[in-house]
Amino acid sequence: MIDFETPEPIKKQQYVLTTVAENMMRPVSRYFDEHEHEIPWDYINFMHMAMRQTGAGSLAPREGKPDKDKPERPKIGYQMLAFMLEILAWGDVGMYLVTPGGGLGAAAVEATGTPEQKQKFLARFRDEKPTFAAMAMTEPQAGSDTSAIRSTAVLDKETKEWVLNGEKIFVTAGQKALEESNGFVVVWATIDPKAGRAGMRPFVVEAGTPGVKVTKLEHKMGIRCSDTASIVLQNARVPYDHILGNPEVVDEKTTKGFKGAMATFDATRPLVAATAVGVARATVETLKQLLAEQGVNIRYGLPRQKLTAIEKEVIDMEVMLRSAWLMVLKAVWMADNRMHNPLEASMAKVRCGDVVTKITQKAVELMGPLGYSRDLLLEKWFRDAKISDIYEGTGQINRLIVARNILGYRGSELR
């Protein structure tokens, strides 16, 4: 049964991560917002060193064999990531997105790869140099409808290589994954266009692969520190064993194509939700501090009719924040215990994306011209917030997933 008590290994990391967020992220948050795409190497190098030493924030398999004489560690990998990401997003969500590590790319390998592939591609995150990974799925004509993907992968039977062609857009960390040594992008392409979703497969495309080019970096409203790239693949060749899962086209139930993509999102959507909670928490805490400086303190415990309008607003924000975090905890606990969690993952994503948008907007509103100005970070958090409701499945798509799971409909029956 789920236990909402914070696991001891996570408690030990919270102090360190909060120190990083307070001293390495928050002080330069405005600078990197105004210098879009400039890379915060001091933060990246520090986090890489810390993560190598502790193993935190990585899905990389541990070296060596488990000690049978020691009790098995609790399964808290995704829970640990959720707590870590919430704190880092509290510091600065754009900077969190450039933290070295696997991100969506590693999650795709974890969800669809063989044990040998996981060892090969995930172990590199322990290397001395920071390593980045990304996932490329969205195309100009295929956003939420992943079945419309047109990128192709054709097997060259003579060389035993896959030849990839296509264009991918809105690839988070795509530039760093392809331009920094040892990085990679998991590219979703079809090996049989006639097979529909059953023909979809993920391919590991490593940095330096000929025929792969970053053609554009998006200029964005928020998360401006993070690069969001467009990538073109022109006869890009990858080794045969870089296809994740079964290369044979059978049907959707027996392959890790489309279902593998969805399994990736089931694991990562709660983590995106956790970052939304981090931004929302930063907003609520800052708002309460600013109000206190003006002599407005929240009087908890009074009947609602005796509270001021501002007190009611703040308390409502805190209720939304706490309920959203509980949904994250349930979804990541299920992921750690290998439980089927598409309903819980999408519910957490929907709720947290909605909550962070409402909280940041309300904070700007309550602070008036000061909240709208660049004197405070409130307006930045307002701009950063909306992406939580968009990437890794829009709020509308996740609401459809929730409805399908509750009502028992297939995707073709409820659109």
Average pLDDT for all residues: 89
The global form is: globular
User: Which residues sit in consecutive blocks of at least 5 with pLDDT less than 50?
Assistant: 69-73
Please tell me how large the radius of gyration is.
Answer: 22 Å
Structure description:
Helix content is 48%, strand content 13%. It is an alpha+beta fold and 415 residues long. The protein has a domain at 258-407: Butyryl-CoA Dehydrogenase, subunit A, domain 3 (Up-down Bundle). The chain has a 4-stranded antiparallel sheet. α1 (8-25) packs parallel to α4 (77-96) and α4 packs across α9 (309-336). The longest helix has 36 residues, at 258-293. The chain is globular, with a radius of gyration of 22 Å.
Short overview:
The protein is an alpha+beta fold and 415 residues long. It has helices at 8-25, 29-34, 41-54, 77-96, 103-112, 115-122, 174-179, 258-293, 309-336, 342-372, 378-385, 395-407, and strands at 133-136, 152-156, 161-172, 184-190, 200-206, 212-217, 228-239.
List keywords for this structure.
415 residues, alpha+beta, 3-stranded mixed β-sheet, 12 helices
